[in-house]
Each structure stands twice: as structure tokens, then as C-alpha cells.
Specification:
This protein has 178 residues and is an all-alpha fold. The chain is built from eight helices and no strands. The chain is elongated.
């Protein structure tokens, strides 16, 4: 009884498949659109160039955000390289971070405008940042590690350590906040 039921079910499925694959009914073929005289005056490459021009806009913006962060880290490294006294270094680092905050805020404006303008490019920016942000932060940590160790372990100055680490990383957060 069960065998007959299974066999009839399989036959029904096969029959339905054969009926739906009837090759005598072909979809109508479409001929390629012909150009009118108005179409001939427009260059053919113009529509294709538009998507290609903005194809990397999100990635380029993300690279610019990370490059600006790297500049700030390099400048902080130069300021702290000779290990000046904390009282001298602290205002310099605060001024450096304050000078990069408006740059990152401007990049944030571009970042948010990109989201409104082209969600695909915005996604590319997020993908790039997700992939490379950690590497840039790790490189910054490696670059600043000797001075962070000095101010943390030898001087015990947590404020300088915070300025050289989390306050610099917060610059990226300014650029990508939503």
C-alpha cells in the first residue's frame, strides 16, 4: 500500500514537471532596440561612464578617513617622540586632536551625504572601513607603543596615555558616526 502511494506520488511529480517544461510554447523573442536619429547624436559611452565614475566613491572616502587618522597619529608620534614632560605634551596633543576633529566632522558630512546619495557606495565605505580600520588602529598602537609605555609605566600619566590611544581612535568615530 505504501509502495503504491509513493509510486503514484513520484509519477505525479514527474508528470507535473513534464507538463511545465512544454517546449512547444516558446517565449516571444525580442529584437534589439533600434537607434533613432536622436539617439545617434548622444555618445554611447556616456551612460556607461557615469556608474564607473562613482564606483569607488565609498572606498575612496573610507581611504580618506583612514589616511586622515594616520596623519593625526604620525603627528602625535612626532610630538611625543622625544618624550617631553607631560605638562608640555598634553596641551600639544589636545590641540592636535582639536585640529583634526573638524576635518573628521567634514568627512562625516561627506559620509552621511554618501548614504543619502548612493547606498551602494556607502556600503563600500563601510566594508572598507570594517576591513581596514583595525589594521590602521593596530599600526597606530605599534607606532605609539614606546611612548605610551613610557608615559604609562615610567611617568604614570594616564591622561597622556588616553590622549595617545583612545582619544586618537575617537577621531575615526567622529568621521563615521550616524
Amino acid at each position: 500500500m505504501v509502495k503504491k502511494l509513493v509510486l503514484s506520488f513520484v509519477c505525479g511529480v514527474l508528470a507535473a514537471g513534464l507538463i511545465s517544461c512544454d517546449k512547444s510554447k516558446k517565449p516571444p523573442t525580442q529584437s534589439p532596440p533600434t537607434k533613432t536619429s536622436a539617439d545617434k547624436s548622444a555618445p554611447a559611452a556616456a551612460p556607461a561612464a557615469t556608474p564607473a565614475a562613482g564606483a569607488n566613491e565609498g572606498r575612496d572616502l573610507a581611504k580618506k578617513i583612514l589616511a586622515t587618522y594616520d596623519e593625526a597619529v604620525a603627528e602625535a608620534g612626532k610630538l611625543a617622540k622625544d618624550k617631553p614632560e607631560s605638562a608640555v605634551l598634553k596641551p600639544q596633543l589636545e590641540q592636535l586632536i582639536a585640529s583634526y576633529s573638524p576635518k573628521m566632522a567634514e568627512l562625516n558630512t561627506q559620509y552621511l551625504a554618501l548614504r543619502a546619495k548612493d547606498i551602494r557606495s556607502f556600503g563600500q565605505a563601510n566594508t572598507y572601513l570594517g576591513e581596514f580600520r583595525g589594521k590602521h588602529v593596530a599600526n597606530a598602537d605599534n607606532t605609539l607603543a614606546p611612548v605610551v609605555k613610557y608615559y604609562n609605566f615610567e611617568k604614570g600619566d594616564k591622561e597622556i596615555v588616553q590622549l595617545l590611544s583612545s582619544k586618537l581612535v575617537a577621531l575615526i568615530d567622529i568621521a563615521v558616526k550616524r
